[in-house]
Amino acid sequence: MSPRKSAAEARRTRERIVERGVAIASVEGLEGLTIGRLATDLGMSKAGILGHFGTKETLQLATLDEASAVFLRVVWQPAAHETPGLPRLRAVCEAWITYLEHEREIFPGGCLFTTASVEFDARGGRVREAVARLHRLWRRRLVGELRLAVTAGDLPSGTDPEQVAYELVGLYLALNQAIQLFADPLAPDRTRRALDRLLAQA
Amino acid sequence: MSPRKSAAEARRTRERIVERGVAIASVEGLEGLTIGRLATDLGMSKAGILGHFGTKETLQLATLDEASAVFLRVVWQPAAHETPGLPRLRAVCEAWITYLEHEREIFPGGCLFTTASVEFDARGGRVREAVARLHRLWRRRLVGELRLAVTAGDLPSGTDPEQVAYELVGLYLALNQAIQLFADPLAPDRTRRALDRLLAQA
DNA sequence: TTAGCTTCCGATCGATCGGTTGCTATATTC
DNA sequence: GAATATAGCAACCGATCGATCGGAAGCTAA
């Protein structure tokens, strides 16, 4: 029925699949993201979906990549122009809070990375490795900013960047839980207070 | 073939189902816990499994209850006899770290509460409510100990117990991720260092 | 001893899972 | 303009999902 589209249209179709995939996976998880559900939502056949990826695992990896792009666009980009070190880190932290507060408008079911991390942390496979890689990458970026902050003198010279990054990630895991599970409106301010205690020793 | 067992045997069968359910769910999630998998693992029929619970949702709730009992037994009980307030809280925190470090011996796939929290935080239903209730209960217990610590003078009078409990939970979410996803052997010590900074202002 | 309750099984249900196949119709390439 | 490559569909595959059914078998109370 629907025959071959132009290469450009096909690319657009693939984008639509991945975008919808991110939305579904943020609610149902990357395993709960099924081909049939995608096909129904997009008014396509299952074969039409799978044709773009070959296997479900590849679809999951593509979904993860898209989510990563969204995260960087929303959390990193707005802060990228700030002066590297503590100022930029501060800006990133604030954007990160905003991201988690309003993520329903981006990911209907909350941060896909947190979901995927917990979903795959007890399994093997390429998806698990991709999730771990993305988390490592992000943590490394945080550590980098912290290091700059230390050498710039914005943080005490005794500061352990890895340690601070570790605690930082914990704060955002707590924030995600408070928002998603408890719908706690106080959580963003709690996070800010904890951040101040963690970073404001200039 | 296998006919009626005595009431005691039936209770034991139910226990075996729930215990195995906890092990499976800690790896696959509470949705990934399937009747067929349980039946195969236990050498029973699917009907035999479901007969004890009626629906999968009830099975999930029973699994969650068992996991809760295990958690309290491993994390709370060993510390329960300590003097209430900061000493007991310290003991609980150390037991909590030990629990997450060695949880593979308890839950093959990591802390079931963290898994369930993320798995159901974007859905409705009784399981989600049960997960939220258990998390709230635990957090309330932490807040109670913190309050005692403040009135005992072991923490500064300006301390906000809710705030500290919030950050505490974040630390353990980070620890769970570091252990399960990254297999990071440094994480327990990082957690202890963060705990000291958070609590040791006596 | 017997009647009834309960545990558990084997079989089966409709739905859905990920994935394959054969095909059509068009875009692209030569 | 002919040959080729390809997007997407309809139909279907075996496996598995949660759930239901009638019956078999033994515990338990009368």
Automatic annotation (TrEMBL), chains A, B:
UniProtKB keywords: DNA-binding, Transcription, Transcription regulation
GO molecular function annotations of the record: DNA binding
Annotated HTH tetR-type domain residues: 11-71
Signal sequence interval, chain numbering: none
DNA-binding region: 34-53
Pfam families, per the entry: TetR_C_13, TetR_N
Protein name per the record: TetR/AcrR family transcriptional regulator
Taxonomic source organism: Streptomyces triculaminicus
